[in-house]
Amino acid sequence: MLAGAAAIFGLVMILLVFSFRRNKNSGEEEGQIRVWIIGLGLAFPALVLGALLAYGLVVGERLLPRDGVNLVQVSAQARRWEWRFTYADAPALETTGVLHIPAGRPVDIAITTADVIHSFWVPRLAGKLDAIPGHTNTLRLEADAPGTYQGVSAEFSGAGYDAFAFQVVVHDESDWAAFLQGQPE
Amino acid sequence: MRALERHRKLTAIWASETGFKGWFSTVNHNDLGRMFLFTAFFFFIIGGLLAMLIRVQLATPNSAFAGPEIYNQIFTMHGTVMMFLFAIPTFEGLAIYLLPKLLGTRDLAFPRLTAYGFWCYAFGGTMLIVAMLFGIAPDGGWFMYPPLSSAIHSPGINADFWLIGITFVEISAIAAAVEITVSVLKYRAPGMSLEKMPIFAWYALITALMILTGFPPLILGSVLLELERAFGLPFFQADLGGDSLLWQHLFWLFGHPEVYIIFLPAAGVISTVLPVMCRTTLLGYGWIVSAALALAFLSFGLWVHHMFTTGIPHLGLAFFSAASTLVAVPTGVQIFAWIGTMWKGRPELHLPMLHILGFFVTFVIGGLTGVMVAVVPFDWQAHDTAFITAHLHYVLFGGFVFPIFAGIYYWLPHFTGRQQFFRLGELAFALVFVGFHVTFLAMHWVGLLGQRRRISGYTPEDGWSVINLISSVGSFILAIGIAMILIDVLLHIFTARRSCRNPWNATTLEWAMITPAPAYTFASLPLISCRDPLGREPALATALARGEGYLGVPREGLRETLAVDSASGRPEMHVLYPANTRLPIVMSAVTGLFFLSLLLKFYWTVPLALVGVIILAWRWVWSLGLRDDPAMQPVGHDLTLPSAATAERAPGWWGSVFLLTANGTFFGALLFGFAFLWTVAPGWPPPVWFKPSVLEFALGVAGAVIAPLAMRRAIRKNRAGDTPFSNVLIALFGIAVLGITCAALMMRAPAPTSHAYGATLLVLGGYGLFHATVAALMSGFLATQMRLGFTSAKRRAAFPIVALWVKYASITGLIILSAAHLPGMLS
Ligand code: HEM
Ligand SMILES: [Cu+2]
Predict the structure, then answer these.
(1) What confidence tens digit (pLDDT) does each residue in A60-106 have?
(2) Which protein residues touch ligand 1 with a CB less than 6 Å away?
(3) How many independent structural domains does chain A possess?
(4) Which residues of B761-795 are buried (b: 16+ CB within 10 A; e: fewer)?
(5) Are A84 and A132 part of one and the same domain?
(6) Residue A98 domain-assigned?
(7) Domain contains A185
(8) Which residues have CB under 8 Å from B533's CB, separation 6+?
(9) B271 in Cβ contact with B199 (< 8 Å)
(10) For the CA atoms of B785, B786, B787, B789, what is the dihedral angle to 10 degrees?
(11) Higher confidence at residue B302 or residue A148?
(12) What are the sequence ranges of the domains in chain B?
């Protein structure tokens, strides 16, 4: 995407620079309109954008929640300025500030809020999704490898917003089982 | 009569009072345009200083410069000041100053309204700045999302300043938009048909229409949020049947078109200035007009792309993503038409041209990153990071500030009658250009590294320190550059040497006059037969000064002009403007009292202010009445025209049509909100439904049907020579009945503070009551005029205007009553 954008930018700049040449042979107004407006103004963006749009939709499609096998369900509730996570597989368990999930399995995170709008964002795992009062939004993500990932709330929420972050700990299979048993770490 | 004598006579008729007292009573577009621009740049400096504070704060990690409480006010005010107090008013000021001159007429359609708009803007803006000086400025971000901005989470008065101050400023924008629309459509030189209009007029017209349809949703949102904050009507509270998403819809329904409302006037400046800089004409005039129109339409279908992360259904995402990329096509048409213009001509690197080149570089990058964030998966990563802030500045600074600087340098000789002397401008441009790109390229970068927007600090471990420092250094270079431009302009105003009349060799009409522009603009009005009148007839200016055009003979104390048929530009009526008056400033002060009372919760002064507004408005229109039938007016060249007071569609009628367009959008947004809450909000159905009443409904419907019919009858009888006093009274009666049923709806709305359903019914009823009251007052006004002999078969202009408002109140009243009563009756 970046390369394409750079190419288009380069093209426009070259056209600008060349317009300062003295001996241009530009021809009739009719022809100019055909080249500049219909060709470069209409057809060119339409083509580029069509391609880009198709790409975006296809990729977007892949990121959407689908009926996964082996699905893990967790809930994330935000409040100023703390995230609380609960787990469908272990109803008694609640963690604050740290979300635990297993590696290699699709996870559905049901995102809600107890006060204002927040946004759940773990840059290395998925795009962001908002927590909106009265609504539940579901984010599907899948972590390939165990480890610790940083997450932040990405919707302005007042004075404590700067430090409003959380962590996602991704476990391998045995750790995950242990965690659900109530012995985290 | 000699040219000089004509100049003296006309100046005596049109000039404002001398000295600073003149500012308060002037209604002349020359003065008001300059006052608008001056005030807007004053706010630009404030917004710029706030930007510097932001960059100081972010320059180093763990900055101790301002705590989050203060920092949140700083960036909220920066965004708010720039968008509402700088960008939009700059457009208004430029359009107000230029349009009559470009269109070959003497003033805008409603001079007193221009003044009223200016004072509303000045007072509303002052309210916000005063709040900031006291440290109680809004702090919820420039889009003020509830519930963060609701009473529970923002208990102070800060948010109220935003909601009320901005609404006040928006009223001014609506006033200016009505003014601009009617002026472009009706107030042009004879012969200037639509396709002979200068391109800037097209852009101004389209922008004004967008303001009329884009701003009402935000005004509605602000009214609802303020009602929630002040009286506990829960429109945005999820547990009481409201939904905070409704605010996001209303806000972005305004916010996205806003971006184009800012860009289009700038594009108008480019389309005007660029061909002159290239010694040629604009390539593809018709294409550009169509592209701008397409952009205007499309921009109303895009607002959801600001809400991609709110959990919008997938199909919705696909649709709005497609629409958002589509909008790049008409933008592309304009860009390439401009580059084509450059190829067609011989570009010369004067100062305005430098800024246009700055525009090209910056705006194209902004457009490309914009297309990137329209791709949904990318937006999910970039949303709410510094990448977005950087993108938005490329679009706003590139798409607005650079073109406006180009315009300022281009028209400066027109404002002052002087010629550029110092060469500070070139250096200043270089600093601005370099500073801007350093600042915001760095912000793109740090955004991709994950820095969120609106944070007041970060830690060294984040690894953003160096980039932020670079960005802050860039912003100071930028600030020095802007300061130099302002100094350059001031030096120009006070010291430069006199310039010749048309320094750029432009072909548009504004250069066919002495500079600085005289209060009356044209000594006589030209007859237009092509798009570049000065190009075809370089001596036009002297011919007009010699009185060879229309209305070349000044008449004692009369500010005269012509209005034309919208499409063909055929002269249609003779218009007399009102003279200098303090009515507008007094009226906007009383309007301000109304808003201030709401803000400070002095509720007993609210009705006082309302009565004050009514009395002043009454005086305002009353002064237009005529005791005797006006004669046909000779306007020169053997042409006589009827007076506007005898027109079926007088300027006031046109103004009403466009005011009601804005009003209808407001009403439509309100209905949308009702439907949205009903179908999407959690917490429905409400615990109690409204009890429908067949009697109330039937009475209201009867009133709403009788009133417009009676008005129609009144128009017919008046035309036939009768005095239809009784018909107007019947209309008044019908409207009053409608108003009473709306009041009953308000009284019986179930528990408005405990569920959004009742709250919305209350607001709907209030809307109906308000418009019934306005229509009733207007009917009463007309009846009084008739009694005292101010109307006749000829002096009929007031009838269709009142009929229009009566019809509007009836239709909206019918919809309101149906929305409240019918669901219960049918089930
Ligand atoms: C004069 C140079 C300018 C500089 C250095 C500057 C700098 C900034 C910075 C650093 C932010 C980010 C605040 C944050 O998210 O932490 C910001 C936000 C913003 N700026 Fe500017 N800006 C400038 C001019 C403008 C102009 C001309 C406009 C509009 C016409 C504008 C509109 C905005 C808006 C709408 C925001 C978002 C505020 C919010 O998040 O609520 N800025 N600006
Ligand atoms: Cu947008």
Answers:
(1) 666 665 666 788 999 999 998 899 999 998 888 999 999 999 998 88
(2) B 48, 51, 54-55, 75-76, 78-79, 82-83, 87, 141-142, 389, 393, 396-397, 400-401, 439, 453-454, 475, 478
(3) 2
(4) bbbbbbbbbebbbbbbbbbbbbbebbeeebbbebb
(5) yes
(6) yes
(7) no
(8) B104, B507, B508, B509, B512, B526, B540
(9) yes
(10) 90
(11) A148
(12) 3-10+27-495, 644-826
Of A13, A19, A130, the CB nearest to B342: A19
Report the CATH number that the domain containing residue A91 is assigned in CATH: 2.60.40.420
For residues A81 and A56, state if they share a domain. Answer: no
Contact A159 B72 (CB under 8 A): yes
Do A50 and A85 share a domain, yes or no? no
Q: Helices B244-277 & B285-299, crossing angle to 10 degrees?
A: 170
Are residues A128 and B383, on separate chains, in Cβ contact within 8 Å?
yes
Query: Which of ligand 1's atoms lies nearest the C-alpha of B475?
Result: 5
Distance B296 CA to ligand 2 centre (A): 12
CA distance B336 to chain A (A): 5
On whether both A48 and A87 belong to a single domain, the answer is no
Is A63–B283 a contact, with Cβ atoms under 8 angstroms apart? no
Q: How far is A66 from chain B (nearest CA, A)?
A: 12
In terms of phi and psi (left: phi > 0; alpha: psi -120 to 50; beta: otherwise), the region of B521 is: left
| Mean pLDDT score, B58-63 | 89
CA distance to A6, B422, B498, per residue, from B495 (Å): 44, 9, 9
Ligand 1 centroid from CA B276, angstroms: 32
Strand order in the sheet with A107-113: A90-96, A82-87, A72-79, A107-113, A137-141
Tokens 């008729």 correspond to B13
Q: Do A116 and B239 touch (CB under 8 A)?
A: no
Closest ligand to the CA of B263? 1
pTM exceeds cut of 0.90? yes
- β-bridge pairing A147-153 and A165-171: antiparallel
Residue A32 and residue A86 in one domain: no
pLDDT, position B556: 83
CA A14 to chain B, closest CA, distance in angstroms equals: 11
- Residues B551-563 pLDDT 10s: 988 988 899 999 9
Using the predicted structure, report yes or no on whether residue B422 has a pLDDT greater than 90: no
Q: Give the atom of ligand 1 at the shortest distance from the alpha carbon of B262.
A: 30
Q: What is the band of A185 on the pLDDT scale with cuts at 50, 70, 90?
A: very low
- If one compares B47 and A26, the residue with the highest pLDDT of the two is B47
Asked if pLDDT for residue A29 goes beyond 90, the answer is no
Question: Which architecture, in CATH terms, is B644-826?
Answer: Up-down Bundle (1.20)
Q: Is B243 on the interface with A (CB under 8 A)?
A: yes
The CATH class that applies to domain B3-10+27-495 reads mainly alpha
Q: B644-826: same fold as B3-10+27-495?
A: no
Tell me which residue range forms the domain holding A162: 72-180
Domain-terminating residue out of A62, A87, A113 = A62
Q: What is the DSSP letter of B4?
A: H
> In terms of Cα–Cα distance, which of B594, B633, B635, B636 is closest to B612?
B594
pLDDT for the residue numbered A64: 63
When pLDDT is cut at 50, 70 and 90, the band that residue B207 belongs to is very high
Q: Which one of the ligands is nearest to B58 CA?
A: 1
The answer to whether residue A67 is domain-embedded is: no
The pLDDT-based confidence of A35 (bands split at 50, 70, 90) is confident
B368 C-alpha vs ligand 1 centroid, how far in Å?
19
